[in-house]
């Protein structure tokens, strides 16, 4: 797994200000076909896997609904962070020790040492063991790397609405956001914000992992946030971030994508 610890000054140098231009997006469906891959596990045998992770979800990976359902992936699925938040079903192929059920995992981390020429999952110990028949969790983990099949699936966070975390180091001139609990596609392909009293949507830049940012200013809240996903689905949370926002705070909207 991989961790990021970088200064706000460095992050701001990666971010730039642009004004959103008119852009047409065509909605497509998730590819839910099964594909071959491999899987390993990391962390404690019955553990939740990552403590934080390269996507930037922090302590969210330690609590439900992400708890014990997280996974790290190689570059094929991590996609330089654009795969963060996507959900997959992963199924073991060794029928002598594995059940027929698939485990559902959420991409929260990067696996830098994973192969780049094939799809590989590095799962939490709990998620990996969940693929075994009852009582054989330990034996399955002892096998190390195993062949699997996987497919994309919709993310479902029952009882949760989309939330926006204002990242540490944010100011009225450099604003960075992380999206949490996104039903449906789970990923973000573009993000825009709208200031109070403005009709203009300002485009945010993908920073790292699941984090986005904008340099402008001074930015004046409350902010509305517009999201687009990899399949072209869109959602707008009106005035979700208040005028008195503060860094390291999370603001929950009143809506979510339908799974």
Task: Please tell me about this protein's structure.
The structure is a single chain. This protein is mainly β. It folds into two domains: 35-153, RlpA-like domain (Barwin-like endoglucanases), CATH 2.40.40.10; 159-252, Sandwich (Immunoglobulin-like), CATH 2.60.40. 8% of the residues lie in helices and 33% in strands. The chain contains four helices and 16 strands. It has helices at residues 8-14, 75-78, 125-129, 137-142, and strands at 18-19, 35-42, 70-73, 87-92, 103-110, 120-124, 146-153, 163-166, 174-180, 190-194, 202-203, 205-208, 211-215, 223-228, 234-241, 250-252. It has a six-stranded mixed barrel. β10 and β11 form a beta hairpin. The longest helix has 7 residues, at 8-14. The chain is elongated, with a radius of gyration of 19 Å. The two termini are 28 Å apart. 41% of the residues are buried.
CATH topology of the largest domain: Barwin-like endoglucanases
Count of β-strands: 16
Count of individual helical segments: 4
Largest sheet: 6 strands, mixed, barrel
Q: How many structural units, i.e. domains?
A: 2
What's the CATH H-level superfamily name of the largest domain? RlpA-like domain
The CATH architecture of the largest domain would be Beta Barrel
The span between the termini is 28 Å
Q: Report the uncertain regions.
A: 2-11, 17-27
% residues in beta strands: 25-35%
Radius of gyration: 19 Å
**Considering DSSP H and I runs of 4 or more, what fraction of the residues is helical?**
under 10%
